[in-house]
Design goal:
Length: 115
């Protein structure tokens, strides 16, 4: 993944938004992605997008294209909190700013990309 990201972004001058996860929810529980992975991507910042756990539950319920563990809204809320904490830690570990995006993040994300 890191090599592909580097190859695809090497020649662009446009801002790149990498949609990644700080935690992966698998059959064996949560797996935190190490800070070293994000450091290798040479990111300028870490942004964390929050969403209503009930909406996440509904999107996951309707997504039959991916196999993933079934989680209720309360568990998804806990996972989101843990993922946010992990993202904050990753940002601190790699010395990059952290931005929390909630609600409709379009304007805020556009503002971050313009900076």
């Amino acid at each position: 993944m890191i090599a592909a990201f580097e190859r695809l972004t090497r020649t662009t001058t446009l801002p790149v938004v990498f949609d990644g996860h700080s935690l992966i929810d698998g059959r064996d529980g949560l797996l935190e992605i190490p800070s070293t992975v994000f450091a290798a991507l040479s990111l300028d910042a870490i942004a964390f997008l929050t969403a209503d756990p009930a909406a996440i539950f509904e999107r996951r319920r309707l997504d039959d294209g991916r196999e993933r563990p079934t989680r209720d809204s309360a568990t998804l809320a806990l996972h989101q909190s843990l993922a946010e904490s992990a993202a904050r830690r990753i940002a601190a570990d790699i010395g990059r700013p952290f931005h929390l995006l909630d609600g409709d993040p379009t304007g805020r994300l556009a503002s971050l990309l313009a900076d």
